[in-house]
Write a structure and sequence with these properties.
about 325 residues; alpha/beta; 2 domains; eight-stranded mixed sheet; three-stranded mixed sheet; 12 helices
Amino acid sequence: MNPKLIYDVGMHNGDDTAYYLRRGFRVVAIEPNPALVATASERFCREIEVGELKILNVGVAAEDGELPFWVCLTDSRLSSLYRRDASLDDRHPVEEIRVPCRTFRSILDDFGVPFYLKVDIQGNDSLCIEALDPGDVPKFLSIEFVLWNAPLMTLMRARGFNRFKCISQTHFLPLQLPPLSEARLIQRAERLSRTRNMLVRVFRRLGGRRWIQRQFDRLRTHDGWIFPAGSSGPFGDELRGCWLSHEELCATAREFLRLRQEEPRTLLWASAGLGSNPFWADLHARSDYRGSKPFGGTKKAKNLEGRVFGHVSDSPRRLRDQALRVDCWRLPTTTSR
């Protein structure tokens, strides 16, 4: 594993790549859409010239060769090797082109195993994980996630990833219970932005909208960097929240799915995904948790992680009560990371 290398699989417009370069990493970016590659090549011409960035204009597939690629004409982020995914079941117009494709194993053989592997390619994401050698995997991984994708979780665990965070992509907040104080603040900001209450509408006209927007913008900023809409956001230990075991993640996911169906107003801070996907979220994983110290490393903190962050021993009533606390209107006085 190369500690100075990041893979951006699904580069799109290069916003994620720009952040990784700013952090001082070398980047291998993979993008099958030739129009996006041309734009990114101009944007990052200096980084390409000095060897900090390598852009591969290929798709990731099960075999090397040329395949049809479907470009979504209304939202290029949806473009895919699969027409159904690119069109969202024929709800968006698409255009077919042909692109060269490579196996992800061949790319790993050429450039090495990265420190962080970001995958967002609308359809063949799991091929990137399948190609990893369990004896040599990235320290961190993120992949677009649909609750609940049991085969994906099984595959990730088989490759050696054993700690997880499910991160809502609108505000980069973890799906965990009880929610972070930032989630409670965003919950209130979302309610203030949507309500038709006359007093709140006056508040918005008198400058309240700026306060609400500051709450949203604050969570999309890290170390002076503002993450544009649609970008993947921070990664690794920059992420808010606590790393969960597989069992804790399973219990938490089940409770969030229940809340989305039965108490949707408690989750205004966790945006829904496209179509039937109940959440727009990425699953982040780490592979080297053994021997490390979670949540500050103290014994008390370790016990706290197991006790409150979606642990399987928590009763459904307790998890529900924790989630409903998000609706509290009292502003938190401190924030946690």
